Amino acid sequence: MKKTWILVLLCIATVAVSVRLMIIENSRPEGTMDASQEVIDCIMTRASVRKYKPKPVNDSIITTIVKAGMASPTAADQRAWHFVVITDQALKDSISDSFQWMKMVEGCAFAVVVCGDMDKLFDGDREDGGFWVQDCSAASENMLLAAHALGLGGVWCGVYPNGDRVEKLAEILNLPNILRPLNVISFGYPEVPVAPKDKWNPEQVTYNEFLDSRGQK
Ligand SMILES: Cc1cc2nc3c(=O)[nH]c(=O)nc-3n(C[C@H](O)[C@H](O)[C@H](O)COP(=O)(O)O)c2cc1C
Fold this sequence. Notes:
By secondary structure, the chain is an alpha+beta fold. It folds into two domains: 2-27; 47-188, NADH Oxidase (3-Layer(aba) Sandwich).
């Protein structure tokens, strides 16, 4: 008798949860998911952060950020990349001293160098400016967004396709020839909050076939 009552109660609870889920599903605006506004806010409020608090970032957060990088799409799902995580102060100093535009690396908690792996290119991809650049770029933006979501900030510092920078960075990090560094991304807790820029410009958007300013093909 007691068992029957428990079963009846379980059935009622299951139905109640299902109905609640159906209501939530139907009340969502078309094309949105749970937490969608948080994701959009994260994308819209990201800004390059170049000054950091002298506060370490724990290993599990570093791993989460690199995992977010590896979650990005890649051409032919080839994942022709390698991530060099830099926590060593001497290496950070060396990068900062060697590149005029990377002075912030000295004071960052850690940096990631996103490299293309020339041994993993798919048949037909090119070493020079191939799809690997897009793969590594997608991974880089994923990491910047993940860092921002976790309360950190970062900045992408360009390396490839500048041959001198590629060569110098490869020398500092003792990179094997097959790894081509696309960038250095420094991360850390922002010293002060950095306001995002509003870059929305509808004039840079067109729909369908391109028409000139007079509306002609
Ligand atoms: C390919 C690339 C190279 C960049 N190189 C540098 C760099 O060497 N040093 C730097 O301070 N910022 C660098 N940046 C960051 C840009 O300056 C920054 O993204 C831009 O000013 C827009 O600002 P925001 O990121 O705050 O929106 C680079 C960004 C990209 C995408």
